[in-house]
Amino acid sequence: MPKQLLQSQKMEAIGALAGGIAHDFNNILTSIMNSAELALMDVEPDTDAGKDLERVIRAASRGKRLVQQIMAFSRPSQEGFQPTDLAEHVRDTVNLLKPSLKRNITVNAKVTAEPACVMVDPRQIYRVLMNLCT
Q1: Phi, then psi, of 98 in degrees rounded to 5
Q2: Separation of alpha carbons 92 and 82, rounded Å
Q3: Are 59 and 16 found together in one domain?
Q4: Same domain? 71 vs 91
Q5: Same-domain status, 59 and 102
Q6: Alpha-carbon dihedral 57, 58, 59, 60, rounded to 10 degrees
Q7: What is the pTM of this model?
Q8: Do 33 and 98 share a structural domain?
Q9: What residue numbers bound the domain in which 133 lies?
Q10: Which positions fall inside the Signal transduction histidine kinase dimerisation/phosphoacceptor domain (predicted)?
Q11: Residues sharing a CB contact under 8 Å with residue 4, sequence separation 6 or more, in sequence order
Q12: How far apart are CA 92 and CA 112, in angstroms?
């Protein structure tokens, strides 16, 4: 029994540490998103710079969702299931992953142009998609 108690205490400490780091990282991502959104107001959206800034905002937004997943391990989730556009999640995940994949890896995602709403925890569905692609 003492070994199980020690393991439980270790896991609790790791969860608290992860929650603290996730909170700090979330603040950094918020700063990145805010700066990119402000910069986007100074450029035309259809320019290369505008598209790059939009990509930064989307990536930071996904990063914030990942941070929420980490925080879910340190405290129970209150968000739960909600209507989520699965098609949008798949498109965004594939677009985010493609630049970082090795050249010999190809991702072919055939996603409907119309919303594909499902009742899920959006943080978990993103995690599943990331795991499938990496």
Answers
A1: -50, -45
A2: 18
A3: yes
A4: no
A5: no
A6: 50
A7: 0.51
A8: no
A9: 79-134
A10: 13-79
A11: none
A12: 13
